[in-house]
Specification:
Blueprint lengths: L2 H10 L8 H19 L2 H17 L7 H19 L2 H16 L8 H19 L2 H17 L7 H19 L2 H17 L7 H19 L2 H17 L7 H19 L2 H17 L7 H19 L2 H16 L8 H19 L2 H17 L7 H19 L2 H17 L7 H19 L2 H17 L7 H19 L2 H16 L8 H19 L2 H17 L7 H19 L2 H16 L8 H19 L2 H16 L8 H19 L2 H16 L8 H19 L2 H17 L7 H19 L2 H16 L8 H19 L2 H17 L7 H19 L2 H17 L7 H19 L2 H16 L8 H18 L3 H17 L5 H18 L12 H5 L1 H14 L5 E3 L4 E3 L1 H9 L2 H12 L2 H15 L2 E5 L9 H4 L11 H15 L4 E3 L10 H17 L2 E5 L20 H6 L4 E4 L18 H11 L3 H5 L8 H9 L8 H4 L2 H4 L11 H16 L38 H7 L5 H13 L4 E3 L2 E19 L6 E7 L5 E5 L13 E6 L13 H12 L2 E2 L1 E6 L3 E5 L6 E2 L4 H5 L2 E7 L1
Parallel strand pairs: 3-4, 3-5, 5-6, 14-16
Antiparallel strand pairs: 1-2, 1-4, 7-8, 8-9, 8-11, 8-16, 9-10, 11-13, 12-15, 13-14
Helix pairs in contact: 1-2, 2-3, 3-4, 4-5, 5-6, 6-7, 6-8, 7-8, 8-9, 8-10, 9-10, 10-11, 10-12, 11-12, 12-13, 13-14, 14-15, 14-16, 15-16, 16-17, 16-18, 17-18, 18-19, 18-20, 19-20, 20-21, 21-22, 22-23, 22-24, 23-24, 24-25, 24-26, 25-26, 26-27, 26-28, 27-28, 28-29, 29-30, 30-31, 30-32, ...
């Protein structure tokens, strides 16, 4: 019979009413509670409670055993609360416990046990409601009980245990480490008292283990965790199968092993944790109060195992378990947030594995729910903030929605604040925030983001020492960020450190590790970057090897396979570019195609694959010339560009490369549309690569190349000038050591040679030779471009020989040409060019020495070139013509008629390839005529002579008088007529040089006269100091050594080179220098110096300055100089008018402009000079291409050693500071009316001695010609200028000024200083998202109507001082005077106008009464139809852009209505900034054309 049965028998012997019944009831209740403790049979506990209630009625207040009944009933209710969590039971237990304690006063033997049990119940209530008062009281009660249970007391261990439990609970709530230390101390003391065999030893072992685990989680001291595991194992042994607390020990041990796995990564620990978790769950069946905790913990361990082995079954089960736990944790449950958090984590892991967007959305939704439940102060808030941030970052990586990334950064920062130094998870927050900032840098290129990412990455790495499971990740990501910084700033130590970090990460990721491929990939990327920087082939080989290893590990289905394929393809392409091994390029193309298949439409990296494949196909075209490859490259390039819209970080690269491919297609097919588009694309790329950008030099280089190509096609000199300017800029950016410096040197040299061929400026050719030599040094033997440099240098030396007749130049040209030909073997695309040019140089040496061997070799080379230039080749005509020339010369030398007949055949074939409009047709006609004339002399066949005459006549029709070739053809035609009239003339043929020499003098005089027409009327001869008019200039040339040398050279040089020689000599002789200075006292006028040498005159005053100027011009090797003091007859109004109208052109055409800054000492800074504040000096600054600044004592500013201050970066920066004019305008200014407002602003800070001159000084800048009427008012002069600007350009920006109105017209200022106010900057493009938010389709109809009205509005025009101006008008509905200032007369008005926001203006004078009348005023926005896109079709995008423009603020004009429907501008002295109310008011705007006087 068990104890309960015996106690029931005892009760039966004590019927109701008998003495001792209460005791029998009490004993039975106690026996039932004890049996419940052994088997957790709830019926026993319920019966015990019922019995205790009955006993309590038998033991009324005052009964000596009432306290025992209160105590036991409280204990039973507390036990039932433990099992069923019924709060009413707990509340009653606390109440009964307090009542029992009151009956157990100090000194009572049972007071300690009452204190202890009440404390336990209060702790339970704290755990339920988190009321700190309960926990505080529980601790006090436990302390009081402990004081009553001295050392040796059998229940002392219970008090120690209970007190430890309370401190542990308070630590959980407040995270005070002192509480945790107390818990551990008291727990150890309890364990020491509960020796083996003690019935409660297991619970003390368990609780101490839990507290040690908490301390491990706080301090990461592994010995705490190891001890916790040992204690849990010991407790588990004391709780065998069937023990009611066995599940707790299984669960606790599983948690510790899971933590150990997190720290040390031992799979055995994780496997045991999962096994223990499953065992726990089997004990905690549905209905068990801790089932949800077990479901949750087992799910977390299964998720970890999924992360280790990627078994989807584990993740699937984890999600199911988390869902089951969530169902058991309804709204309001304290652990509901944990289930949200864990479930979100699982979905996030599922997304990582399968990339199902639905999983990621679930993760974000659940993560937000967890954060909402974990309010500030919650111990796990940081973890939820961190995980949600990570999921938002993943969504950003998938959708590129910047707001996701911004929110992720905010969440990571918030989590980091909750994880202060010392927090075990701080490194995770540092790392996560660093990754987000790195992503933001990738999207927006803000260097501050990258710098912060690196700083945070370093901090994370410091917290992840050797042995830390996430050290490899931190090493890898910090390396990636350092590589990015290297790409930004090109600091090699960043790349070096990145490689070291990647190597360290790779060492931590041995074979078989899932992240090994990432380290291989990242390390390959770094070696590839270092190869790009240093060109060490070993680095490239490393990159390829590592890249292949990464691809091998990233099999089909791997999420990062595409990026490894892409990068390996890029490195193989680089190796192809270095070694020209076609199999590398073919493999690269295959890899790019494979990567493209893995990046379907919509993939964020698709544009990269399109771009990379396009580059490879373009390279293949360069190598093999297959047009299909180029066409596909262009198609792919366009597709990539469409995916890289404005703002995309790689848009500039796509613009650049597509432009390069279009230029190649132009070179193939000569389609000008391709070249035009290429230039536009290169310009767009250049705009995206501002000063300081690493790739700016590439855009400058290739834009120069395009302009050079267009010059070759159209011969527009402006294109060649652009090419030279851009080429110089590229060379300046590609300093020694830059891998592409040689290419820029080479191309600039080629363009300078072209300019020499056009202008015959010897310094261009000299510089071209220097640049080619410098490029050749950078292209040593074996370099794939060496043949180009050899060839280019040979061409320049050949040109120099043609100009200066130095035999050494020709010999070097031939040597270099042979070297180039040796490198251009059969099959080389440029072999024909080398054959042709070497043949030409041998022809030149034949003409010099008449060595037949040179002529024979030249003919062989020309024949070889002709074989390579098949019918259809664009240079076939050149080979035909030059081969004919050589054969004709061999006929002259050897008399073989077959040579002459073959020459005629070839010349005819060449002529057929030159259509009537071709620039070389006249020369071909002339040469064929000469061959036919020779044939007639050999065998007088009339048809030959008649054809020769007809050909020469056609040649004359294509030439113009003044062209030296015209005179040559005319002389030959006269000779042919004489041969026809008098056949005897044909017996002795004239020498080839006689005809052009007959009238050389006349030809030269005519060309000199044409040249002098473009030059100033008078010039100072720098050698003699004499002022010369045009006749004197001509006379000096005809008597000069230059003319004598020209006469001699014309006799020796080939006929087709004489015209060029004459032009070169004349243009070189008449180069002139312009003078720019401030007028001072005693300036010499025309009448003062005419007829005198200035060097023989006094050196005082202005004459001394003039002498110094001429001497400086002479030092710079120029014969002619011009000064505005003495080279203009100011007494002649006609000459003065012509000089003012021509002055800009003279400064532009000058070889050099010398500026004398008389107020700047040698060590001063010139931006303070008065020269920068004078009106006339503005065009003298902008017009010249070459300028030298001299200081007070005539020293070069900054001791400059170059030939042009405008090429010096520091000087250009100072010029910009002094003038407010951007460098591109200072070096490459084009006169005209583009952006007239800016040009007026440049002049607004300047003044002139005569007020009206400020307008006249701007005529050249605007490219205008107006009568100069000295004596007119400055207002009228400025007014006439502005009228002309509006009339010719319609530019309404000139109406944007603030100041006094002109009496000439109310819309014009009285003074140019009114343009000093900056115009309202155009608003940057509205953020696309905001534009979408403000856009309403309902606005479309009204906006289209407004757009049509604006498009159809007439152009602004000015007739009879009346300005007809299209405007968007806003009628003023109210004008209210807000107040005036008696101390400083001013009047503040508040103005209301239809469709505009209210605005205030302050005026110095009061508005007229008429202006205050209703309807008298209009606020207007001037309009020009060019402000709209010229497209006839207005789509939604155009509508949105128009709406965005019109919604912004603008500078308004305030107009008052006059009689006869005219208006006048008023209140011009104040800046009026108006803005529409909203988009609705914009579309309701009225467009009118007003007449303003």
């Amino acid at each position: 019979m068990d104890d309960v049965s015996r106690k029931r028998a005892d009760l039966e012997s004590c019927p109701p009413g008998s003495n001792g019944r209460d005791v029998a009831l009490f004993n039975l209740a106690v026996a039932l509670r004890n049996r419940f403790k052994e088997g957790e049979k709830f019926g026993d506990l319920d019966e015990a409670i019922t019995l205790h209630r009955d006993i309590l009625q038998l033991r009324p207040s005052g009964h000596h055993d009432r306290s025992s009944s209160l105590y036991e009933l409280a204990l039973c209710l507390s036990n039932r609360y433990n099992s069923q969590s019924t709060v009413a039971d707990l509340e009653e237990a606390v109440t009964l416990g307090r009542a029992a304690l009151e009956l157990h006063p100090p000194g009572h033997p049972d007071r300690a046990v009452s204190l202890h049990n009440l404390a336990c119940d209060l702790r339970k209530r704290f755990q339920k409601h988190a009321r700190m008062d309960d926990l505080k009281e529980a601790i006090e009660l436990h302390h009081a009980a402990l004081d009553l249970r001295l050392s040796g007391h059998p229940d002392r261990s219970s008090s120690l245990h209970g007190l430890a439990f309370c401190f542990s609970n308070r630590y959980d709530s407040q995270k005070a480490v002192a509480d945790l230390e107390q818990a551990v101390t008291f727990g150890r003391a309890a364990v020491e008292l509960r020796l083996p065999g003690h019935p409660d030893r297991a619970v003390s072992l368990y609780n101490l283990a839990c507290d040690l685990r908490k301390r491990f989680q706080k301090h990461a001291r592994m010995y705490d965790l190891k001890e916790a595991i040992e204690l849990h194992r010991a407790a588990l042994e004391l709780r065998p199968p069937g023990h009611p607390r066995r599940s707790s020990s299984l669960h606790g041990l599983a948690r510790c092993l899971s933590d150990k796995y997190d720290s040390q990564g031992l799979v055995a620990d994780l496997e045991e944790a999962v096994a223990l978790g499953r065992a726990t769950l089997e004990f905690r069946l549905p209905g068990h109060p801790h089932r949800a905790v077990s479901l949750h913990s087992l799910a977390c361990d299964l998720r970890k195992r999924f992360q280790k082995h990627a078994r989807m079954d584990d993740l699937k089960e984890a999600i199911e378990l988390h869902r089951a736990a969530l169902d058991l944790r309804p709204s309001g449950h304290p652990d509901r947030s944990s289930s949200f958090h864990g479930l979100a984590f699982c979905f996030s892991n599922g997304y990582d594995g399968q990339k199902a967007v639905a999983d990621l959305e679930q993760a974000v939704t659940l993560g937000r729910a967890a954060v909402e439940l974990r309010l500030p102060g919650h111990p796990d808030r940081a973890a939820s903030l961190y995980n949600l941030a990570c999921d938002l970052r993943k969504r950003f990586q998938n959708d590129a929605r910047m707001y996701d990334l911004k929110e992720a950064i905010e969440l990571h920062r918030a989590a980091l604040e909750l994880r202060p130094p010392g927090h075990p998870q701080r490194s995770s927050s540092l790392h996560g925030l660093a990754r987000c900032l790195s992503d933001k840098y990738d999207g927006q290129w803000l260097v501050a983001d990258l710098e912060e990412a690196i700083t945070l990455g370093r901090a994370a790495l410091e917290l992840r020492p050797s042995g830390h499971p996430h050290r490899a990740v931190s090493l890898h990501n910090l390396a990636c960020d350092l590589r990015k910084r290297f790409q930004k700033h090109a600091r090699r130590y960043d790349l070096k450190e990145a490689i070291e970090l990647h190597r360290a990460a790779l060492d931590l990721r041995p074979s078989g590790r899932p992240d090994r491929s990432s380290s291989l990939h990242g390390l390959a990327f770094c070696f590839s970057n270092r190869y790009d920087s240093q060109k060490a082939v070993a680095d490239l080989e490393q990159a390829v090897t590592l890249g292949r290893a990464a691809v091998e590990l990233r099999l089909l289905g791997h999420p990062d396979r595409a990026v490894s394929l892409y990068n390996l393809a890029c490195d193989l392409r680089k190796r192809f570019q270095n070694d020209a091994r076609m199999y590398d390029l073919k493999e690269a193309i295959e890899l790019h195609r494979a990567a493209l298949e893995l990046r379907p439409p919509g993939h964020p990296r698709r544009s990269s694959s399109l771009h990379g494949l396009a580059r490879c196909l373009s390279d293949k075209y360069d190598s093999q010339g297959l047009v299909a490859e180029l066409e596909e490259a262009i198609t792919l390039g366009r597709a990539a560009l469409e995916l890289r819209p404005s703002g995309h970080p790689h848009r500039a690269v796509s613009l650049h490369n597509l432009a390069c491919d279009l230029r190649k297609r132009f070179q193939k097919h000569a389609w000008m549309d391709d070249l035009k588009e290429a230039i536009e694309l290169h310009r767009a790329a250049l705009d995206l690569r501002p000063s300081g950008h690493l790739d700016r030099s590439s855009s400058l280089h290739w834009l120069a190349f395009c302009f050079s190509n267009r010059y070759d096609s159209q011969k527009a000199v402006a294109d060649l000038e652009q090419a030279v300017t851009l080429g110089r800029a590229a060379v300046e950016l590609r300093l020694p050591g830059h891998p592409d410096r040689a290419a820029s040197l080479y191309n600039l040299a080629c363009d300078l040679r072209k300019r020499f061929q056009n202008d015959a400026r010897t310094y261009d050719l000299k510089e071209a030779i220097e640049l080619h030599r410098a490029a050749l040094e950078l292209r040593p033997p074996g370099h794939p471009r060496r043949s180009s440099s050899l060839h280019g240098l040979a061409r320049c030396l050949s040109d120099k020989y043609d100009s200066q007749w130095l035999v050494a130049d020709l010999e070097e040209a031939i040597t270099l040409g042979r070297a180039a030909l040796e490198l251009r073997l059969p099959g080389h695309p440029h072999r024909a060019v080398s054959l042709n040019n070497l043949a030409n140089d041998l022809w030149g040496r034949f003409q010099k020495y008449a060595r037949v061997c040179d002529l024979e070799e030249a003919i062989e080379l020309h024949r070889a070139a002709l074989e390579l230039r098949l019918p259809g080749h664009h240079d076939r005509s050149v080979s035909l013509h030059e081969l004919a020339r050589c054969l004709s010369a061999r006929y002259d030398s050897q008399g073989a008629v077959a040579d002459l007949e073959e020459a005629v055949t070839f010349e005819r074939a060449a002529l057929e390839l030159y259509p009537p409009s071709h620039r070389k047709r006249a020369s071909s006609l002339h040469d064929l005529a000469q061959c036919l004339a020779k044939h007639f002399r050999h065998q007088p066949i009339a048809a030959d002579l008649d054809e020769a005459i007809a050909l020469e006549q056609e040649a004359l029709q294509l030439l113009t008088p003044g062209d030296p070739n015209y005179d040559i053809s005319r002389c030959c035609l006269m000779t042919y007529f004489q041969m026809k009239i008098n056949p005897e003339v044909a017996i002795i043929p004239p020498r080839a040089t006689d005809a052009p020499h007959v009238e050389l003098s006349q030809v030269v005089r005519g060309l000199v006269s044409e040249t002098l027409k473009t030059m100033p009327t008078r010039l100072l001869h720098t050698h003699t100091g004499v002022l010369c008019n045009k006749d004197a200039q001509l006379s000096r040339f005809m008597g000069s050594q230059q003319y004598s040398q020209l006469s001699s050279s014309c006799r020796r040089c080939p006929p087709d080179q004489r015209a060029k020689l004459i032009h070169t000599t004349i243009s070189g002789y008449f180069k002139f220098v312009m003078f720019s200075h401030r007028w001072g006292e005693g300036e010499p006028l025309l009448r003062d110096v005419e007829g005198h040498s200035i060097y023989d005159m006094t050196t005082k005053g202005g004459l001394g300055k003039l002498q110094a100027f001429c001497l400086r011009a002479c030092e710079q090797k120029y014969l002619w100089a011009w000064s505005d003091t003495c080279c203009i007859d100011k007494d002649s109004s006609a000459e003065l008018q012509e000089a003012i109208g021509s002055m800009f052109a003279w400064y532009r055409r000058s070889a050099l402009t010398i500026v004398h800054l008389s107020d700047i000492p040698n060590t001063g800074s010139f931006w303070t000079s008065e020269w920068f504040r004078r009106g006339w000096t503005l065009q003298e600054l902008l017009a010249p291409r070459t300028t030298l600044f001299y200081t007070q004592n005539w020293s070069l500013y900054k001791n400059f050693l170059g030939s042009n201050h405008k090429t010096d970066v520091i000087v250009m920066e100072e010029l910009e500071k002094a003038t407010g004019i951007k460098p591109q305008f200072l070096t490459d200014f084009t006169p005209g009316m583009d952006d007239a407002r800016s040009r007026l602003r440049w002049a607004s800070w300047r003044h002139t001695t005569r007020d009206e001159d400020i307008a006249y000084s701007l005529l050249g800048i605007f490219g205008l010609h107006l009568p100069v009427l000295y004596g007119e008012s400055a207002e009228k002069a400025l007014g006439r200028l502005l009228v002309e600007i509006i009339s010719q350009s319609g530019d309404i920006s000139v109406l944007d000024w603030v100041g006094e109105a002109s009496p000439f017209h109310s819309c014009f200022p009285a003074h140019i200083t009114s343009y000093q106010t900056l115009p309202l900057p155009r608003s940057p493009d509205t953020d696309e998202q905001l534009l979408e938010m403000s856009w309403q389709p309902s606005l479309s109809t009204a906006l289209r109507k407004l757009c049509r009205s604006l498009t159809e509005s007439p152009l602004p025009e000015f007739i009879n001082r009346r300005l007809t101006l299209p405007c968007i008008t806003h009628g003023v509905t109210a004008v209210r005077l807000n107040g005036d200032n008696p101390l400083s007369p001013s009047y503040k008005y508040r103005i209301l106008a239809s469709g505009l926001r209210p605005l205030e203006i302050t005026l110095p004078v009061k508005l007229e009464d008429a202006a205050m009348k209703q309807g008298a005023l209009q606020l207007v926005r001037p309009w020009h139809s060019k402000l709209l896109s010229p497209s006839a079709n207005v789509d939604v995008t155009t509508e949105k852009q128009l709406l965005s423009t019109l919604e912004g603020p603008f500078h308004a004009l305030l107009l008052i209505q006059l009689p006869h429907n005219e208006y006048k501008r008023i209140a011009s002295s104040t800046l009026i900034v108006a803005q529409p109310v909203d988009s609705g008011s914009v579309v309701q705007s009225e467009v009118r054309t007003l007449n303003i006087v």
